[in-house]
């Protein structure tokens, strides 16, 4: 039954080569904790991806209830937290997941750095990885404002102030960042759009590149 | 034997008999063997994560209030090292901390593969790269810690929010156009609040229930040095009397 379904699709779309590219390869011994426990450091990248997936999922569910305007944003977060079934849990996943992504990604970066895995021919993948890091920091910065509570508002106010301190072009950066002269309604919609449309697009593109390059170049050999 | 029968099915035993003797020892097919193990690790990781979430519910502070600039801002913890860096470049050189240094650090990080371009990979065999990263790491941890400590110190130095738990439920002011009320609004409201709900000083809603006018005159005249000056900073005894007379009327329940 499964075999027949698979063959039917394969005849029409030729998915076997794609499937082979993704799944049919051997995992070398030195990255497999089943061989040597210390190889667990090679898990950090995969765990980062796992948490990014849970961030995307919990974010999608939060977006069902969240309202990005200054009158309702706070109330909708309150509603998610207090009224929605499992809302407290989903919000908790998204909140704590944000920190966990940073932690796991940082550990992954340290592993790559200290094992010298970024050396030729994998330089480009390192650059993509650093860009992913910056994008994730962008997620953190924009997402922090969305609950529209005091903590969120004043942290972003400081961020805007810092942007303004850039010589010559500071005030233009600030205007682009907060969408006007004051931190308010336009800032919230802008940060929401960046958080749920612009940055995810960028992140998924970069992650795609990251994984394609790993498959193309293979994982770096043992030290 | 039944035992052997099972062994062929648990993840970790090879999915197929290796025919290729040239493969290095210890390699394992990604699918399904290695992926199943990864899933186990991932599942355990998620369970720990979910437990953490259940026991650490996320708080929501008060709704954003753009006119309340007394709120002490604090970025999320992973931005703290950058936030702390700014404090070392105050005033007109802040751009050194906000643009130049982070810019240099980010550029060095991106260019790492070209700066550290020897063939060797072991961290002990490339001391410059390794020590540079260890040092930056220690610096980041220290600055994050320092930002946290300074934030806590700042919070501790802030005047404490007055305890309003014993305040009467009815907070409507009695006789808000009284001359005493006008004196209060200019001289006393800064600490006790224009609505009498208290700021740095205690709330005065319902103060008339506890004290009569004479007692209030006495209390204001003495003050509470050093927090409240004698006469509460009022110019004359007459003003004290007018304020006390108005406060004595505040008998909210």
From TrEMBL, chain A:
It is found in: Cell membrane. One of its GO terms (biological process) is respiratory electron transport chain. PROSITE patterns: CYTB_NTER. It is a multi-pass membrane protein. Gene3D superfamilies: Cytochrome Bc1 Complex, Chain C (1.20.810.10). Residues 5-223 form the Cytochrome b/b6 N-terminal region profile domain. GO terms for molecular function: electron transfer activity; metal ion binding; oxidoreductase activity. Pfam families: Cytochrome_B (PF00033). Signal peptide: none annotated. The chain crosses the membrane at residues 39-67, 95-114, 126-146, 192-214. The main subunits of the menaquinol:cytochrome c complex are a Rieske-type iron-sulfur protein (QcrA), a cytochrome b (QcrB) and a cytochrome c (QcrC). This is Menaquinol:cytochrome c reductase cytochrome b subunit.
From TrEMBL, chain B:
Gene3D superfamilies: Cytochrome Bc1 Complex, Chain C (1.20.810.10), Cytochrome c-like domain (1.10.760.10). Residues 175-251 form the Cytochrome c domain. Keywords: Electron transport, Heme, Iron, Membrane, Metal-binding, Transmembrane, Transmembrane helix, Transport. The keyword Ubl conjugation does not apply. PROSITE patterns: CYTB_CTER, CYTC. Residues 20-145 form the Cytochrome b/b6 C-terminal region profile domain. The chain crosses the membrane at residues 39-58, 93-115, 127-145. It is found in: Membrane. GO terms for molecular function: electron transfer activity; heme binding; metal ion binding; oxidoreductase activity. Pfam families: Cytochrom_B_C (PF00032), Cytochrome_CBB3 (PF13442). It is a multi-pass membrane protein. One of its GO terms (cellular component) is membrane. PANTHER family: CYTOCHROME C-551, CYTOCHROME C-553-LIKE. This is Cytochrome c class I.
């Amino acid at each position: 039954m499964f075999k027949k379904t698979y063959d039917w699709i394969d005849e029409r779309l030729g998915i076997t080569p794609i499937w082979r590219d993704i799944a049919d390869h051997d995992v070398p011994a030195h990255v497999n904790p089943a061989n040597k426990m210390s190889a667990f450091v090679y898990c950090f990248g995969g765990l980062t991806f796992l948490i990014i997936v849970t961030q995307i999922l919990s974010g999608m569910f939060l977006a069902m209830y969240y309202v990005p305007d200054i009158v309702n944003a706070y109330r909708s977060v309150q509603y998610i937290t207090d009224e929605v079934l499992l809302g407290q849990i989903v919000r908790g996943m998204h909140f704590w997941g944000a920190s966990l992504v940073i932690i796991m990604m940082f550990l992954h970066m340290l592993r790559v750095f200290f094992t010298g895995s970024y050396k030729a021919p994998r330089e480009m993948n390192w650059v993509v990885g650093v860009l992913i890091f910056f994008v994730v920091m962008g997620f953190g910065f924009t997402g922090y404002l969305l609950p529209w509570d005091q903590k969120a508002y004043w942290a972003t106010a400081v961020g805007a102030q810092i942007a303004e301190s850039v010589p010559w072009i500071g005030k233009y950066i600030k205007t682009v960042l907060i969408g006007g002269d004051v931190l308010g309604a336009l800032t919230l919609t802008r940060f929401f759009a960046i958080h749920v449309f612009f940055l995810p697009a960028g992140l998924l593109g970069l992650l795609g590149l990251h994984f394609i390059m790993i498959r193309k170049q293979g994982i770096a050999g043992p030290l | 034997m039944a035992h052997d029968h099972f062994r062929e099915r648990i993840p970790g035993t090879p999915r197929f008999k290796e025919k290729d003797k040239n493969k290095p020892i210890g390699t394992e097919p990604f699918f399904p063997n290695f992926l199943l193990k990864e899933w186990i690790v991932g599942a355990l990781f998620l369970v720990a994560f979910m437990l953490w979430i259940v026991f650490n519910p996320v708080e929501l502070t008060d709704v954003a209030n753009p006119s309340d600039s007394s709120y002490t801002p604090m970025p999320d913890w992973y931005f703290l090292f950058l936030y702390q860096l700014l404090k070392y470049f105050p005033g007109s050189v802040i751009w050194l901390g906000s643009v130049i240094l982070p810019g240099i650090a980010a550029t060095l990080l991106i260019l790492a593969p070209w700066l550290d371009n020897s063939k060797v990979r072991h961290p002990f065999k490339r001391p410059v790269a390794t020590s540079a990263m260890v040092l930056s790491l220690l610096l980041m941890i220290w600055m994050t810690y320092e930002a946290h400590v300074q934030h806590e110190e700042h919070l501790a130095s802030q005047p404490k929010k007055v305890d309003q738990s014993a305040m009467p439920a009815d907070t409507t002011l009695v006789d808000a156009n009284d001359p005493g009320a006008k004196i209060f609004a200019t001289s006393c409201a800064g600490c006790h609040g224009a609505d009498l709900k208290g700021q740095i000083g205690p709330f005065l809603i319902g103060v008339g229930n506890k004290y009569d006018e004479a007692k209030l005159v006495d209390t204001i005249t003495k003050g509470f040095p050093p927090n409240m000056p004698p006469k509460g900073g009022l110019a004359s005894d007459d003003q004290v009397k007018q304020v006390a007379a108005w406060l004595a009327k505040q008998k909210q329940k």
